[in-house]
Design a protein that fits this description.
This protein is an all-alpha fold. The protein has two domains: about 350 residues, ABC transporter involved in vitamin B12 uptake, BtuC, CATH 1.10.3470; about 40 residues. It is built from 16 helices and two strands. The chain has a two-stranded antiparallel ribbon. Helix 12 packs parallel to helix 14. The longest helix is centred in the last third of the chain and has 36 residues. The radius of gyration is 30 Å and the shape is globular. About 35% of the residues are buried.
Protein backbone atom coordinates (compact mmCIF):
# COMPACT_ATOMS: atom_id res chain seq x y z
CA UNK A 1 0.00 0.00 0.00
CA UNK A 2 1.26 3.44 -0.89
CA UNK A 3 -0.31 6.69 0.20
CA UNK A 4 0.84 9.84 -1.58
CA UNK A 5 0.69 12.90 0.64
CA UNK A 6 0.84 16.38 -0.83
CA UNK A 7 2.25 19.49 0.88
CA UNK A 8 -0.02 22.43 1.67
CA UNK A 9 -0.74 24.79 -1.16
CA UNK A 10 1.14 28.10 -1.05
CA UNK A 11 -0.81 31.17 -0.08
CA UNK A 12 -2.18 33.03 -3.08
CA UNK A 13 -0.50 36.27 -3.95
CA UNK A 14 -2.66 39.30 -3.41
CA UNK A 15 -2.00 40.79 -6.82
CA UNK A 16 -4.64 43.47 -6.34
CA UNK A 17 -3.02 44.73 -3.14
CA UNK A 18 0.43 44.74 -4.73
CA UNK A 19 -0.91 46.57 -7.75
CA UNK A 20 -2.58 49.21 -5.58
CA UNK A 21 0.60 49.60 -3.53
CA UNK A 22 2.61 50.01 -6.73
CA UNK A 23 0.21 52.69 -7.99
CA UNK A 24 0.37 54.70 -4.77
CA UNK A 25 4.16 54.37 -4.70
CA UNK A 26 4.38 55.81 -8.20
CA UNK A 27 1.87 58.55 -7.46
CA UNK A 28 3.62 59.70 -4.28
CA UNK A 29 6.34 61.82 -5.96
CA UNK A 30 3.83 63.45 -8.30
CA UNK A 31 1.41 64.20 -5.47
CA UNK A 32 4.13 65.66 -3.25
CA UNK A 33 5.56 67.83 -6.04
CA UNK A 34 2.15 69.16 -7.07
CA UNK A 35 1.10 70.00 -3.51
CA UNK A 36 4.44 71.60 -2.73
CA UNK A 37 4.45 73.68 -5.92
CA UNK A 38 0.87 74.90 -5.50
CA UNK A 39 1.31 75.74 -1.81
CA UNK A 40 4.62 77.52 -2.46
CA UNK A 41 3.12 79.69 -5.19
CA UNK A 42 0.20 80.54 -2.93
CA UNK A 43 2.56 81.40 -0.08
CA UNK A 44 4.50 83.81 -2.28
CA UNK A 45 1.50 85.34 -4.05
CA UNK A 46 -1.33 85.68 -1.54
CA UNK A 47 -1.42 88.43 1.05
CA UNK A 48 -1.04 92.19 1.08
CA UNK A 49 0.16 93.19 -1.43
CA UNK A 50 -1.07 90.51 -3.80
CA UNK A 51 1.57 89.44 -6.31
CA UNK A 52 0.25 87.41 -9.26
CA UNK A 53 2.09 84.15 -9.95
CA UNK A 54 3.37 85.40 -13.31
CA UNK A 55 4.84 88.46 -11.57
CA UNK A 56 6.82 86.60 -8.92
CA UNK A 57 9.97 86.38 -11.03
CA UNK A 58 9.89 90.13 -11.72
CA UNK A 59 9.29 90.89 -8.04
CA UNK A 60 12.31 88.78 -7.03
CA UNK A 61 14.50 90.44 -9.65
CA UNK A 62 13.36 93.93 -8.63
CA UNK A 63 14.48 93.31 -5.06
CA UNK A 64 14.51 96.48 -2.98
CA UNK A 65 13.26 98.77 -5.72
CA UNK A 66 9.52 98.02 -5.36
CA UNK A 67 7.17 97.24 -2.49
CA UNK A 68 6.27 93.87 -3.99
CA UNK A 69 9.94 93.00 -4.35
CA UNK A 70 10.69 93.88 -0.72
CA UNK A 71 7.72 91.89 0.59
CA UNK A 72 8.50 88.82 -1.52
CA UNK A 73 12.27 88.68 -1.07
CA UNK A 74 12.57 89.84 2.54
CA UNK A 75 9.44 88.39 4.13
CA UNK A 76 7.70 85.69 2.11
CA UNK A 77 10.67 83.83 0.64
CA UNK A 78 12.54 83.39 3.97
CA UNK A 79 9.27 82.39 5.62
CA UNK A 80 8.69 79.77 2.92
CA UNK A 81 12.25 78.45 3.21
CA UNK A 82 11.94 78.25 6.99
CA UNK A 83 8.64 76.37 6.68
CA UNK A 84 10.24 73.86 4.31
CA UNK A 85 13.28 73.29 6.52
CA UNK A 86 11.28 73.12 9.75
CA UNK A 87 8.75 70.69 8.29
CA UNK A 88 11.45 68.43 6.86
CA UNK A 89 13.32 68.32 10.19
CA UNK A 90 10.19 67.59 12.21
CA UNK A 91 8.97 64.93 9.79
CA UNK A 92 12.32 63.12 9.77
CA UNK A 93 12.62 63.35 13.56
CA UNK A 94 9.13 61.91 13.99
CA UNK A 95 9.98 58.88 11.85
CA UNK A 96 13.24 58.32 13.73
CA UNK A 97 11.46 58.28 17.08
CA UNK A 98 8.60 56.07 15.88
CA UNK A 99 10.90 53.51 14.34
CA UNK A 100 13.37 53.48 17.24
CA UNK A 101 10.59 52.97 19.79
CA UNK A 102 8.44 50.81 17.48
CA UNK A 103 5.38 52.88 18.35
CA UNK A 104 3.33 55.03 15.92
CA UNK A 105 2.50 57.46 18.74
CA UNK A 106 6.13 58.25 19.59
CA UNK A 107 6.26 61.93 18.68
CA UNK A 108 8.45 64.75 20.04
CA UNK A 109 5.49 66.26 21.88
CA UNK A 110 5.04 63.09 23.98
CA UNK A 111 8.69 62.45 24.81
CA UNK A 112 9.61 65.72 26.48
CA UNK A 113 11.84 66.83 23.60
CA UNK A 114 9.72 69.71 22.27
CA UNK A 115 8.70 70.87 25.75
CA UNK A 116 12.32 70.84 26.94
CA UNK A 117 13.47 72.86 23.93
CA UNK A 118 10.70 75.41 24.46
CA UNK A 119 11.57 75.69 28.16
CA UNK A 120 15.23 76.32 27.34
CA UNK A 121 14.31 79.23 25.05
CA UNK A 122 11.49 80.72 27.14
CA UNK A 123 13.32 80.77 30.49
CA UNK A 124 15.92 83.47 29.58
CA UNK A 125 13.15 85.60 28.10
CA UNK A 126 11.12 85.58 31.32
CA UNK A 127 14.17 86.04 33.52
CA UNK A 128 15.22 89.09 31.45
CA UNK A 129 18.55 87.59 30.45
CA UNK A 130 19.98 89.32 27.40
CA UNK A 131 21.56 86.64 25.25
CA UNK A 132 22.63 86.78 21.60
CA UNK A 133 20.41 85.09 19.07
CA UNK A 134 23.13 82.58 18.20
CA UNK A 135 22.90 81.12 21.71
CA UNK A 136 19.18 80.26 21.44
CA UNK A 137 19.70 77.03 19.44
CA UNK A 138 22.17 75.85 22.06
CA UNK A 139 19.67 76.56 24.82
CA UNK A 140 17.01 74.70 22.89
CA UNK A 141 19.31 71.73 22.36
CA UNK A 142 20.15 71.70 26.06
CA UNK A 143 16.47 71.78 27.03
CA UNK A 144 15.54 69.09 24.50
CA UNK A 145 18.41 66.89 25.67
CA UNK A 146 17.29 67.43 29.26
CA UNK A 147 13.72 66.39 28.47
CA UNK A 148 14.73 63.36 26.40
CA UNK A 149 17.40 62.34 28.91
CA UNK A 150 14.94 62.49 31.79
CA UNK A 151 12.55 60.34 29.79
CA UNK A 152 15.12 57.65 29.09
CA UNK A 153 16.51 57.69 32.63
CA UNK A 154 13.07 57.38 34.17
CA UNK A 155 12.23 54.56 31.74
CA UNK A 156 15.38 52.58 32.54
CA UNK A 157 17.52 53.77 29.61
CA UNK A 158 14.94 52.69 27.07
CA UNK A 159 14.71 49.02 27.92
CA UNK A 160 11.03 48.97 27.00
CA UNK A 161 9.62 51.13 24.16
CA UNK A 162 6.19 51.31 25.79
CA UNK A 163 7.73 52.43 29.10
CA UNK A 164 9.66 55.15 27.26
CA UNK A 165 6.47 56.48 25.70
CA UNK A 166 4.48 56.52 28.94
CA UNK A 167 7.34 58.09 30.87
CA UNK A 168 7.83 60.66 28.13
CA UNK A 169 4.23 61.78 28.45
CA UNK A 170 4.77 62.34 32.19
CA UNK A 171 8.02 64.25 31.62
CA UNK A 172 6.38 66.40 28.93
CA UNK A 173 3.56 67.25 31.34
CA UNK A 174 6.08 68.25 34.01
CA UNK A 175 7.99 70.49 31.59
CA UNK A 176 4.76 72.10 30.41
CA UNK A 177 3.90 72.81 34.04
CA UNK A 178 7.26 74.57 34.37
CA UNK A 179 6.38 76.64 31.31
CA UNK A 180 3.09 77.64 32.91
CA UNK A 181 4.98 78.81 35.99
CA UNK A 182 7.19 80.96 33.78
CA UNK A 183 4.13 82.42 32.06
CA UNK A 184 2.71 83.42 35.44
CA UNK A 185 5.96 85.19 36.29
CA UNK A 186 6.16 87.06 32.99
CA UNK A 187 4.78 90.54 32.38
CA UNK A 188 2.11 91.28 29.80
CA UNK A 189 4.45 91.89 26.85
CA UNK A 190 6.59 88.85 27.50
CA UNK A 191 3.46 86.78 28.07
CA UNK A 192 2.19 87.54 24.57
CA UNK A 193 5.55 86.67 23.06
CA UNK A 194 5.80 83.41 24.99
CA UNK A 195 2.23 82.45 24.15
CA UNK A 196 2.75 82.95 20.42
CA UNK A 197 6.11 81.20 20.57
CA UNK A 198 4.77 78.14 22.41
CA UNK A 199 2.12 77.59 19.75
CA UNK A 200 4.71 77.65 16.95
CA UNK A 201 4.73 80.67 14.68
CA UNK A 202 6.58 81.62 11.49
CA UNK A 203 5.63 85.27 11.72
CA UNK A 204 8.30 87.95 11.16
CA UNK A 205 11.06 85.48 10.38
CA UNK A 206 13.97 86.72 8.26
CA UNK A 207 17.02 85.35 6.47
CA UNK A 208 19.00 85.57 9.72
CA UNK A 209 16.69 83.00 11.30
CA UNK A 210 17.12 80.70 8.32
CA UNK A 211 20.90 81.07 8.36
CA UNK A 212 21.05 80.04 12.02
CA UNK A 213 19.69 76.57 11.17
CA UNK A 214 22.27 75.44 8.62
CA UNK A 215 25.21 74.67 10.97
CA UNK A 216 23.05 72.30 13.01
CA UNK A 217 21.54 70.69 9.94
CA UNK A 218 24.99 69.99 8.53
CA UNK A 219 25.70 67.97 11.66
CA UNK A 220 22.32 66.21 11.82
CA UNK A 221 21.99 65.23 8.13
CA UNK A 222 24.97 62.78 7.95
CA UNK A 223 23.97 61.23 11.27
CA UNK A 224 20.44 60.79 9.95
CA UNK A 225 21.71 58.99 6.84
CA UNK A 226 23.82 56.65 8.96
CA UNK A 227 20.93 56.01 11.33
CA UNK A 228 18.42 54.91 8.67
CA UNK A 229 19.69 51.32 8.16
CA UNK A 230 19.82 50.78 11.93
CA UNK A 231 16.16 51.81 12.18
CA UNK A 232 15.24 49.03 9.76
CA UNK A 233 16.92 46.51 12.05
CA UNK A 234 15.28 47.99 15.15
CA UNK A 235 11.87 47.19 13.68
CA UNK A 236 12.60 43.50 14.25
CA UNK A 237 12.65 43.89 18.04
CA UNK A 238 15.40 44.24 20.61
CA UNK A 239 16.36 40.56 20.74
CA UNK A 240 16.53 40.11 16.96
CA UNK A 241 18.40 43.41 16.57
CA UNK A 242 21.00 42.35 19.12
CA UNK A 243 21.32 38.99 17.37
CA UNK A 244 22.20 40.93 14.21
CA UNK A 245 24.84 42.98 16.04
CA UNK A 246 22.84 46.11 16.93
CA UNK A 247 22.78 47.12 20.58
CA UNK A 248 19.20 48.20 21.09
CA UNK A 249 19.72 50.58 24.01
CA UNK A 250 22.62 52.41 22.38
CA UNK A 251 20.76 52.61 19.10
CA UNK A 252 17.76 54.10 20.89
CA UNK A 253 19.99 56.67 22.60
CA UNK A 254 21.57 57.57 19.27
CA UNK A 255 18.14 57.94 17.66
CA UNK A 256 17.06 60.27 20.45
CA UNK A 257 20.24 62.36 20.04
CA UNK A 258 19.61 62.72 16.29
CA UNK A 259 16.00 63.69 16.93
CA UNK A 260 17.18 66.35 19.39
CA UNK A 261 19.58 67.78 16.80
CA UNK A 262 16.72 68.00 14.30
CA UNK A 263 14.03 69.37 16.61
CA UNK A 264 15.85 71.78 18.92
CA UNK A 265 17.18 74.32 16.34
CA UNK A 266 13.77 74.47 14.66
CA UNK A 267 12.05 74.95 18.02
CA UNK A 268 14.50 77.73 18.90
CA UNK A 269 13.54 79.68 15.78
CA UNK A 270 9.81 79.10 15.30
CA UNK A 271 8.64 77.33 18.45
CA UNK A 272 7.21 73.83 18.80
CA UNK A 273 5.17 73.33 15.62
CA UNK A 274 2.99 70.56 16.95
CA UNK A 275 2.23 67.09 15.54
CA UNK A 276 4.09 67.44 12.25
CA UNK A 277 6.30 64.57 13.39
CA UNK A 278 3.15 62.51 13.90
CA UNK A 279 1.40 63.16 10.57
CA UNK A 280 4.32 63.11 8.12
CA UNK A 281 5.57 59.55 8.90
CA UNK A 282 2.05 58.17 8.64
CA UNK A 283 1.62 59.82 5.25
CA UNK A 284 4.87 58.26 4.05
CA UNK A 285 3.82 54.80 5.30
CA UNK A 286 0.29 55.05 3.93
CA UNK A 287 1.46 55.94 0.43
CA UNK A 288 4.19 53.28 0.37
CA UNK A 289 3.32 50.59 2.94
CA UNK A 290 5.67 47.94 1.53
CA UNK A 291 8.84 50.02 2.00
CA UNK A 292 11.13 50.23 5.01
CA UNK A 293 12.63 52.94 7.16
CA UNK A 294 15.31 53.76 4.58
CA UNK A 295 12.70 54.68 1.97
CA UNK A 296 10.24 56.21 4.41
CA UNK A 297 12.79 58.66 5.80
CA UNK A 298 13.12 61.04 2.80
CA UNK A 299 9.39 60.92 2.13
CA UNK A 300 8.62 61.67 5.76
CA UNK A 301 10.82 64.75 5.51
CA UNK A 302 9.13 65.77 2.25
CA UNK A 303 5.62 65.37 3.65
CA UNK A 304 6.61 67.29 6.77
CA UNK A 305 7.67 70.22 4.58
CA UNK A 306 4.40 70.03 2.65
CA UNK A 307 2.33 69.97 5.85
CA UNK A 308 4.02 73.03 7.37
CA UNK A 309 3.82 75.07 4.15
CA UNK A 310 0.12 74.26 3.74
CA UNK A 311 -0.63 74.98 7.42
CA UNK A 312 1.11 78.36 7.21
CA UNK A 313 -1.34 79.57 4.57
CA UNK A 314 -4.45 79.69 6.81
CA UNK A 315 -2.25 80.85 9.69
CA UNK A 316 -1.34 83.93 7.67
CA UNK A 317 -4.57 84.54 5.74
CA UNK A 318 -7.55 83.09 7.64
CA UNK A 319 -7.94 86.00 10.09
CA UNK A 320 -5.98 88.66 8.16
CA UNK A 321 -4.62 91.12 9.10
CA UNK A 322 -4.18 89.15 12.36
CA UNK A 323 -1.86 86.16 12.04
CA UNK A 324 -2.54 82.94 13.92
CA UNK A 325 0.23 80.49 14.94
CA UNK A 326 1.01 77.78 12.40
CA UNK A 327 1.33 75.22 15.18
CA UNK A 328 -2.35 75.64 16.00
CA UNK A 329 -3.30 74.65 12.45
CA UNK A 330 -0.92 71.70 12.31
CA UNK A 331 -2.39 70.37 15.57
CA UNK A 332 -5.97 71.07 14.45
CA UNK A 333 -5.60 69.31 11.11
CA UNK A 334 -2.70 66.95 11.74
CA UNK A 335 -4.01 64.93 14.68
CA UNK A 336 -7.32 63.78 13.08
CA UNK A 337 -5.61 63.11 9.76
CA UNK A 338 -2.81 61.14 11.42
CA UNK A 339 -5.24 59.03 13.43
CA UNK A 340 -7.27 58.28 10.29
CA UNK A 341 -4.13 57.27 8.39
CA UNK A 342 -2.96 55.09 11.27
CA UNK A 343 -6.33 53.31 11.48
CA UNK A 344 -6.54 52.79 7.73
CA UNK A 345 -2.97 51.48 7.66
CA UNK A 346 -3.68 48.96 10.43
CA UNK A 347 -6.89 47.85 8.72
CA UNK A 348 -5.03 47.39 5.43
CA UNK A 349 -2.33 45.25 7.06
CA UNK A 350 -4.99 43.09 8.72
CA UNK A 351 -6.81 42.57 5.43
CA UNK A 352 -3.56 41.62 3.71
CA UNK A 353 -2.81 39.02 6.40
CA UNK A 354 -6.31 37.51 6.40
CA UNK A 355 -6.22 35.83 2.92
CA UNK A 356 -2.83 34.26 3.68
CA UNK A 357 -4.10 32.76 6.95
CA UNK A 358 -7.28 31.49 5.36
CA UNK A 359 -5.48 29.95 2.40
CA UNK A 360 -3.29 27.86 4.69
CA UNK A 361 -6.36 25.98 5.91
CA UNK A 362 -8.06 25.56 2.51
CA UNK A 363 -7.16 22.58 0.39
CA UNK A 364 -8.16 21.89 -3.16
CA UNK A 365 -11.20 19.55 -3.01
CA UNK A 366 -11.42 16.46 -5.12
CA UNK A 367 -14.38 15.82 -7.44
CA UNK A 368 -17.34 14.13 -5.80
CA UNK A 369 -17.19 10.57 -7.25
CA UNK A 370 -13.42 10.34 -7.05
CA UNK A 371 -13.44 11.54 -3.43
CA UNK A 372 -15.97 8.86 -2.49
CA UNK A 373 -13.84 6.18 -4.15
CA UNK A 374 -10.72 7.36 -2.40
CA UNK A 375 -12.47 7.36 0.98
CA UNK A 376 -13.74 3.80 0.43
CA UNK A 377 -10.27 2.60 -0.58
CA UNK A 378 -8.75 4.26 2.47
CA UNK A 379 -11.28 2.59 4.78
CA UNK A 380 -10.56 -0.83 3.19
CA UNK A 381 -6.82 -0.34 3.54
CA UNK A 382 -7.21 0.57 7.21
CA UNK A 383 -9.13 -2.62 7.93
CA UNK A 384 -6.57 -4.78 6.11
CA UNK A 385 -3.67 -3.08 7.78
CA UNK A 386 -5.20 -3.54 11.24
CA UNK A 387 -5.65 -7.29 10.62
CA UNK A 388 -2.13 -7.84 9.28
CA UNK A 389 0.03 -5.39 11.20
CA UNK A 390 -1.88 -5.06 14.44
CA UNK A 391 -0.32 -2.34 16.52
CA UNK A 392 2.59 -1.81 14.12
CA UNK A 393 0.61 0.83 12.28
CA UNK A 394 -0.76 3.13 14.92
CA UNK A 395 -1.57 5.84 12.47
CA UNK A 396 -4.16 3.61 10.76
CA UNK A 397 -5.70 1.25 13.32
CA UNK A 398 -6.12 3.93 15.98
CA UNK A 399 -7.80 6.26 13.55
CA UNK A 400 -5.17 8.95 14.10
CA UNK A 401 -5.29 11.77 11.58
CA UNK A 402 -2.49 12.15 9.04
CA UNK A 403 0.37 14.51 9.83
CA UNK A 404 -0.58 18.18 10.09
CA UNK A 405 -0.19 20.16 6.89
CA UNK A 406 -0.82 17.13 4.61
CA UNK A 407 -3.94 15.80 2.83
CA UNK A 408 -4.69 12.78 0.66
CA UNK A 409 -4.97 13.85 -2.96
CA UNK A 410 -3.92 10.65 -4.75
CA UNK A 411 -5.62 7.27 -4.77
CA UNK A 412 -4.36 4.54 -2.47
CA UNK A 413 -2.78 1.56 -4.08
Amino acid sequence: MRTHLSAPLPAPVASGGRRASRVTRRAQPLLAVVLLAVSSVCALSLGTPYVPPHGLAAAVLDGDTTLAGIVVTELRVPRLVLALVAGACLGAAGLVLQEALRNPLAVPEMLGVSSGAALGVAAPLVLSLSLPAAVQPMLAIGGAALGGGLTLLAAGLGRSPSAVLLTGAAVAAALQAALLVLMVMADQLDLQLIYRYLLGSLSARTWDDVAGLWPWLLVAAPALVLCAPVLSVMRLGDQDAEALGVRAQRARLAALAIAVLLIAPVTAVCGPVAWVGFLAPHLARWLNPAAGAVRWLPWSAAWGAVVVVIADLPARLALAPVETPAGAWTALLGVPAGVALMRSGGRGRASRRRPAVASAAVREPLPGPRKAAVDAAVDTSRVGASDDAGADAPGLDDGCPPPSGATRTEDVR
